[in-house]
């Protein structure tokens, strides 16, 4: 298979930079939507996609694809990524005791949160990753993201953009150890290749066909595993995930975004020696592709497996935090 | 008109407690969905509502109803409510300079936020307000919201629930000084009565009919004004908003939620002497009604005014922050 | 020895409440400094103590007794205690690149911190612990510390108070496995009794005599161990520390405060079954004693061991955070 | 007077860069303490200074020179500088109600803070300000302060260093409108020149003589004014403060640090057109001088005025926050 051959040669295990350089050249969308573009592959979503997506709503079931935003989360402090810290500034206990100073029996509770934007279910924005000093569309990284935030591609630019057809590729269930019969889970370190994606689509049937402007949700099953066994090294440790060899698929499929149930989207350990998240380096700055991480597709996956419908309407609206390079999100699938 | 008479008598300006006591008795949903209920009026949303909502998507336009989450926001510190503070832990400037320590030209930007959950566009959860020591469904406030957070009705319980038909009632445009011809704005202190709501529905036409399970988005025009003139006292000062006399309408309409473009949903100053947000005290703990505040309906309102369609599919998914009494949200309207 | 007998009987291993009740009755300072008192044992520090302390400065050496405030710290999220998260809002990299917008070559760096007040070296304030619903001086806990903070004994009341004679009791070096010859370390679980304290004083010599108004700094050696071996369970795990039997010593010695190089001051596991920090329950609400935790006495201890002078001038000024029940502190010893 | 002439010519109102360039050349300590130096003028403090300082303690009075760390503070959001947000994670109200889950009547209160390090009383560290891309000692700004923090001169390097003789120069009382008889206050915009400093020393008498290694505390009286009249534009608005012409005095006096009761140390508006804090640009990166801002000298000033003793032992220990470019501090004066 030609694609296979290309992809295998793409991964030069001892020379990640050579592989990245080659892939960045081949799979690149700079200029595709004009010099001023800030949306990347979200440009593939148009009004027609939203109409198409809405038409998928037939039984009216809704699913949140968000993990909890909880202090008992997987983060361990790497890159100062902690779990969210949620604190109360007023409580029902105070209200009940009558010490809040409000009139006529009014009582209130209020709260505050401090969190890294990458702490739980999230979108990576286009300013999140750079390739050799360049941000999305070929801009100098230092012109885009300063200490003030992302001055160009801040996540607020995508506030109204992420409503489209979603497709679940439940690779864990299709190809995992359970042979596709139950809630399969790919083992840590499993690299999902384009062939795995295509085989999953084939097994799942026609509702899984991936088309331009779709957002693909990959279920590896790792999240099912850590929910059962404990977080362990979910944040940054070994994990199933996309192979670097999917770079071409990500490009030619013309998808608007892709999300996984893992911390880091890519297979870990990465497929190169001494590498760090090389596929991010292609996907975000070169393709302009929106990556979702730490999503929870499990409830949706049960429903899809039950009736064989794998596409749905997906609304995954980031909080429009000015200048943010990503955003927590509660993605909603309706079908 | 009987309703009118009831409502007028409902507002005893010198005795807010008497009015609240009476309204809490008449307009109360405790027990309606069982003792264990944590969703209140979101129970009005069912699969049928979601199908109905999706069917409203015809032109495929999408609108974010979120205000920016920005340090230059309206908060002034009251109840320790600050504007969000968004800071970078890695930047493009660092990546470009090569000081991040990543291999093969990989560069990254990361960020952190600290914010009150009520700082910008938000949902009030059911644990946000208490009536004389009682939370939603008659629970003791101190059993529900402690310093640990909302142990019962935390916003995470609503993670997948808020997808339904939305109806914009552009009261500002319909009844504001411009007489409905342009982007009307109600003046601060304008109390929107049930009659104003009904008159707006009538003026807007049949797509504005409010039905069980809908979420109503009220545009007063105050947000248009502060965007033009500066925040001023947007956070807590005088504002147009719902009259206490709408308590019955909120109850009998069987809506799932209601949101405004103002800081505090209710008219301010409140209609009673020495009162503080009395309608909240009915709506949240007694009706179990979800209130949205600081929404931005302006772009949607333009579109609705242009073609006379005032209903749409609304997805307003809170972040599932464990135990939160509210959540920032980026509500998405598609039509 | 009578004291010994009393103390042994004090610890009823199966009935912590009985022991606490008895100790709270015997060792109690409520009312000692008047009904309105907010300072507890800090009242033992007077101008004379400060003059006495200053007179101890002979060689002019200064030591910080603070551990680092660092993201790579010991906290693991228990009670939402994280390590500090320090982020930059402006950097030198930005300044150098010229993107800050300041005139005439001015560049700036600025920063922000989010942290629990108990995350690193700290004082426990008098509102930090309660005994059966009572705070220091017999006040109802709910009258003192609400969601607004400590309304009565907030740490700001001690802003100028904590300058006095300090005495290092290097119990680790005196009684640890090295037999006192080197940097001894007590093993985890080692309960320091009054006899151990007295024996240490005796071994260290006359500069170690503990007097009214002093602040005693206890070195167990655990911090030396974790610096060498890694944090492990430093935050909340097993540790050497004060025995519950020191309650009387803490009372009769009339010290103004006491600090340790451990997370939690007391021996852990605690000496009772099913107990949690029982000595805190006596020391803070009943004695009004200021407790320091997570201090780093190591550099000071080396100097003291070298010349046999164990007393010094101690300035341990909390940040006057309004309503805080404790404060990070950088204690400075000068001798 | 030669100095005067030099200084006047130093201020070229239309050309701040020329003035800064000239001053940076003349008043510069780069290399004075070796290439690796991270302490700047704190090197002037030695053991002898600490002994000298301790000898000033005669009456044993202690003063906190810290302003409150309080949500109701002066910050308004400029450069994302907010007031501190202090929240409780456990309270006495919860403890009293018995909902904390601790055994034997143990109750606890805990708290969290989020704050800019420059929000209230603080030290500027040596990485806080840059001069044309250079940090203290001539290092490239981008080598010193990245998004990770100050990798070289982080405030933790000064943890044990700031104990020395302090001298209060109460310029407000000496030269303010009250003519020295009462709590004088300099008007906003008043530029304190070297002559004003010398005149104050002369009026205050011999205990005010400024010597090598001292820390000078300047009282302008502005803080007295805002405490009385409200914060107004205390954070960044007009203020009395040091004239750019003091650059030479700051250099030749060989002081270890200097602090004021104002937001920004320098006179504001600055003495140049279109300038921003030009004296900072000399003092921090070129002199290596530690600047204290937002100190509260008022209680100390009353005592000094009463008995004419203007020098004291000053302990102003920053929190050793790894990589911070400044630190909140509670400076303690004992005399």
From TrEMBL, chains A, B, C, D:
SUPFAM superfamilies: Putative cyclase
Superkingdom in the source lineage: Bacteria
Species per Swiss-Prot/TrEMBL record: Arthrobacter bambusae
InterPro entries: KFase/CYL, KFase_sf
Protein name: Cyclase
